[in-house]
Amino acid sequence: MAIITYPRDLGERIGEGFPHISFELIDTSVPDFTKIHLYIPDGINSSDGASYGSLNLGAINALKDITSKADADKKFASNTNDALLVGLKAMEKFGVDSQLTSATAQSKGIAFNPQTALAFENMNMRSFSFEFKLVPESPADSETIRSIENLFRKYMYASKAGIYTLKYPPKWRIKYNVGEQENKYLPFMHDCYLSSFDAVHNGDGNSFFANGAPTSTAIKLSFVETKMLTREDLYPESGYDYTYQRATYVSPSPSGGE
Fold this sequence. Notes:
alpha+beta; five-stranded mixed beta sheet; elongated
């Protein structure tokens, strides 16, 4: 069992340039299969994000001025309010109750300008979710759907590598394709781990085929990329086409590390 396709005519249509999505296990030691080809689901979604924190430059700059007497004399000589507030901030650094310094500033009708600026922290880890409804038209379809469901579930799990040790689950390589080529109009994904898997059987009614197979199986897959990306992981220095370069896979060691 090397490549699994659903629906059954998808394999023939791939050679004709038909759009589809592929899920490939890139751990070559897996014996069950190498790829699963499925139709592209509705509502293709991708989300990129960055995390920013706040940085109060006012206090930092004020303390810098305090440490330089020449700058302090020059900057605070003409503005007693600045001199007062910077002094109060300095007192807080030496342990004076902030309520006391705030009350002093309030009595003068002035407040400290924090000069807050955004500070970049990191890029968010990207995740991707897919939903498929698989409806069999033959006993062979039912068996294919059963294989797809159980192979996704099987390789979401870690495996034992010792009494106290787990081996990482295998990584997945997911591609939107047009025929044999990756589709440049849809999101490019780096290698992922399967983080959650849900299956609903007979969501439209409680009926079964004569062999006990459900009349429909809906699956939901959630993947998360194995690393935080930088711009260079997605794009070349010049241009905006994806590089389509993924990290070389290294097989996990028996101890579970990589």
